[in-house]
Write a structure and sequence with these properties.
Elements (H helix, E strand, L loop, with lengths): L4 E3 L17 E6 L8 E6 L6 E7 L4 E10 L6 E8 L8 E8 L7 E6 L6 E2 L4 E8 L5 E6 L12 E4 L11 E3 L1 E6 L6 E3 L12 E4 L12 E7 L4 E7 L2 E5 L9 E4 L3 E3 L3 E2 L9 E6 H7 L13 E9 L7 E10 L3
Antiparallel strand pairs: 1-3, 2-14, 3-11, 4-10, 4-12, 5-8, 5-9, 5-14, 6-7, 6-10, 11-13, 15-25, 16-17, 17-23, 18-21, 18-22, 18-24, 19-20, 24-25
């Protein structure tokens, strides 16, 4: 395999440029410089035909505030920084994009990429990729390399196109970054991405409140924007797991809940055929009370359920479309 990168051990480093202030909490860190014997590495962030993706696994629920990156290219060089939801190698739609410009030409210039404008909400265990692509103007970025059998500086893998779908080279290379989350909300968290139906509907889920363990606090889950007069269900699981619903990149829906899952009763969306005025709903408490041996029961404080909607859409792949998903957390 031909690898377009420059990897080198750290000797004398220029002092890094101070990063912009963040208000969020540090979540994930792929360090630079790494702790020896893991080596420092530099990557070709200039050649526009190279697209790099670093997979990130979320450890703190909430809104992605952004991430710091370590650049080392020519002054004035530019790199596209993007976010896609799910594992690498990732071809799902870009949910955030910006252009980062190297301001100083220093060997280690730290840049903070602020993603708050995209309002990207994640739950613990979700994955996304930081994607970088240069403009043929001398850009570069930094990371680390752990020669086997050393353990890489960050557990999630780095990918490169051309060369995907497998991890880059021997899978021991990492992009350096620090991600920041704006604190875990106390309200239900909507996450993942709605599919777009054959009539351009994007079904959107919401929950009125988090449930309590006695099932006495109202918790109504509603999916609006469903295609009219379609049969559908709500289902839930105990862990998030965004991945494309259909294989080979077809379709726009994501499966946002990991197995095992439990489905609720079939219902009609109502509304009008060909319109986006259908609604699916679930009284969470009523379902749990009526099904005392349901998945997850008996619930305890702090446990989470991840709920999503599914409905018929014959022209789409698998003849179905999915809503986005909501995380609900049990309260006292």
């Amino acid at each position: 395999m031909t690898t377009s990168f420059l990897a080198r051990a750290a000797l004398t480093l220029a002092l890094p440029v101070a990063a912009l202030a963040q208000t969020g909490t540090i979540d994930q860190v792929s360090p630079y410089p790494p702790t020896p014997p893991v080596q420092t590495a530099g990557f070709n962030g200039s050649t526009s035909s190279l697209i790099w993706q670093q997979q990130v696994r979320v450890g703190l629920a909430g809104q992605l505030e952004g991430f710091e990156l370590h650049f080392n290219g020519s002054i004035g060089s530019t790199i596209d920084a993007r976010v896609r939801i799910g594992d690498g190698w990732n071809t799902t739609p870009v949910v955030f994009t910006t252009v980062v410009t190297n301001q100083t030409g220093n060997y280690d210039e730290i840049a903070f990429v602020n993603c708050t404008s995209a309002n990207l909400q994640f739950v613990v265990g979700s994955t996304f990729v930081i994607e970088l692509q240069g403009h043929d103007d001398g850009g570069g970025f930094l990371g680390s390399y752990a020669p086997p059998p050393l353990t890489p500086a960050y557990p999630e893998e780095l990918y490169l196109d051309p060369g995907q779908p497998g991890c880059f080279a021997d899978c021991h290379w990492r992009m350096a970054f620090t991600s920041f989350m704006n604190g875990a909300p106390t309200a239900p968290v909507v996450y993942c991405t709605s599919g777009t139906t054959s009539n351009n509907c994007a079904a959107s889920i919401s929950a009125s409140a988090n449930p309590n363990v006695a099932h006495t606090a109202p918790c109504q889950i509603t999916i609006s924007g469903v295609e009219g007069q379609k049969s559908g269900i709500l289902f839930y699981g105990l862990a998030p797991g965004p991945q494309p619903w259909c294989s080979l990149g077809s379709g726009t829906s994501f499966l946002c809940v990991k197995a095992p899952t439990m489905r609720t009763g079939t219902q009609s969306s109502g509304g009008a055929v060909g319109q986006c005025d259908g609604v699916l709903g679930l009284d969470w408490n009523a379902f749990q009370i009526a099904n005392p041996t349901a998945l997850g029961a008996p619930w305890i404080v702090g446990e989470k359920a991840y709920v999503q909607g599914w409905f018929r859409d014959p022209p789409s792949c698998k003849t179905t479309s999915l809503s986005n998903a909501v995380e609900i957390t049990y309260q006292p």
